[in-house]
Amino acid sequence: MKAVPCPVSPEELRYLVHDEKLTDKDIATKLGGTIKRVQAWRRQFGIEALPRWKRNEVAPIEGSLRSLLVGSMLGDGRIVRQKTASYYMESHCGAQRAYLEWKAALWAGWEHTINEVPDKRGYTQARLRTRAHGSLNPWQEMFYGDHKRGWKRLLPKVVDMVDELALAVWYMDDGHAGWWPGISFGMGGSSWEVALAIFDKFDLNPRWQLHKGKTGTFHLEREDTAERFLELIRPHVPVCMAAKLGPFGFQGPHYQVRQRVTEEVLRDGAAKGIPIAQMGRELGVGASTVRRRLRSLGIDYTPPKGRPTKATPWLGDTQPLVRERSLLLDGEADRMHTMLQGGLTGQEVADLYGVHRTTVYRRLRGHPPLKTGPRTSLTKEVATILLKSRYPDTSLWKGLDPDSQEAWVQDVLGVLQQVKFPYPEQVSDAVRDKTHQGLVAKDTTLGHSSMGLKLCYSFFPNRYRARYRGRQSAFEAWHDAEALRRAVLWQFRVGDPVTPARVLKAVCANARTPTIFRPTVAAALYRRYCKPGDTVWDPCAGFGGRLLGAVVAGVHYIGTDVAPETVEGNIRLAEWLGAPVDVHLSPAESFKPPQVQMVMTSPPYFHQEQYAGGDQSWSVFDTFQSWQEGFLTPMIQRGAEALTQGGHWVMNIADVSYKRATYPLVESARVALKEAGLVEVETLAMPLSNLNRRSKGEPLLVWRKK
Questions:
Q1: In Å, how far are 77, 97, 124, 177 from 94, measured between CA atoms?
Q2: Which DSSP letter does residue 86 get?
Q3: Domain assignment of residue 207, given as a range
Q4: How far apart are the C-alpha atoms of 408 and 411, rounded to whole Å?
Q5: Which of 93, 114, 175, 249 registers the highest number of CB atoms within 10 A of its CB?
Q6: Is the pTM of this model over 0.85?
């Protein structure tokens, strides 16, 4: 077939392709013909087609956009290379969508999208993605080299590209506001040395702490470093990220006093002969603080001679510092009294506030008398305040020598051993109502949400006396020095707080304290297999998770349990929730429930979890066969008899392995359910916490009455 000649010259065709940036389809329409014919003309004249990205007009990467890109690549940003172009992408949790929108505004001139996508755990993420363009290719090569994926790297030339805006973006991406500002960092090779050079450029001297592998933290310690860093980034931090600017731990009473009682102010007062008492009064501190500060600064002060005259204003009425005094100390008198009543000494309270001990007792005039005598115990609240003040940043423990590490552990241990078992406190009614609304709004998926668990904790103190396979209970471990020491060590190693409440979590993890059935899962199961107003029976009521789920789902709950404390806790929980329920002190295998539309429970796993109180099945039936015949099968039979036609029997149960023996609880339950005349519907996966070894979940058996 004869070739069709091109109707235009090679120069004109090259102009259409490279200058006007027309596609082959557009050229075919303009000149007449087909796309294949245009492609043949280009090959004939040696004219390469433009990549798609070259037809897109984008803003040049300079100015604020350049600073944003550099700071983001130091932080959470990614540049993904395609065949001939690259695109920028960044993800944050859904709560930080406003931050991404602020970044998107700086990407003006680039087509971009912000979408909400689920992460691997099912949580919502906001993701910013720009269009692909070749102008991002050099940036991708600079931060990744020949690597299309994997760890980013920093080249020395990046140091010159970092300005105050880039520094602020880096901090907003990977920074944290603890005792000091800090930035988490993890890049390949010697990138941390380049990062140190960036700080050195701004006359900052952070402490680098390597955590594991390539990851670590830059701690901007000391007031001069922290204040200079905040001064540099503050003008560039948007309102949506203002929480990153503090308050920091170092900005406590000591910091506030030093900000007011400056050398310049004291020299002025000393030169004018202002009485020390007046200086302290107008600066909002005690006279002893002024004296100590004068001595430490080496300021000569000669007290005025003769009879005191009427005080004349020194700093003036316009000074806001004087009015802060009531906020600093006067308003803290009640809290000081609570601390002293809770076991702290006057000197310990004075150290916390950065004042003299006499100032503390002067502030307490008019309060009830304090108890006297040696300290015998500390309250949970006071121990929390004391440990937070001594160890605001537990991640520093890793950088200490072994002797110092042991000294920290022993000091924390000495405080915790003076605290009675720190049972969780009941949450406020406002938190209860807010949580209830959140549970009602939850969908019917069986997720890992722990919402609602805090509502149950305080009603079941006996949960901490349960044992796992005969080990120490959490209550026993708290009063065992070695077990408590292991928990404190764990907190320091992972950089967690060492307050009583947080150490208790580590104690419970070590003791394998029984968990509470997730209320969100219970509510989802009730909604899936019941209608509002139906009646359900829970043979082994446990610690309130299924009761709370029933209240949320709007079904009537009947529960039984053999432990008097557990029954009492469920009743008190229901009263606090304002919901009518029926909870009975009775063994499940001998209880005769009324007609119900659903039976759901999670029974004891033979002798794996040894609950305290009452005639527990593990203590009544000492062999697996007797436990199966005397407890599991009769309980299932009772539930099947109580079910109405079409009702569901739902059971969370799992096999148990102990001393090289495996007890088939799941198969035993299936056999008993089948013998009771029920038919299998499905087996679901019960979501478990990450600490549990069964990461894929435990079986949730769902059977139905014909």
A1: 16, 5, 6, 20
A2: E
A3: 64-245
A4: 5
A5: 175
A6: no
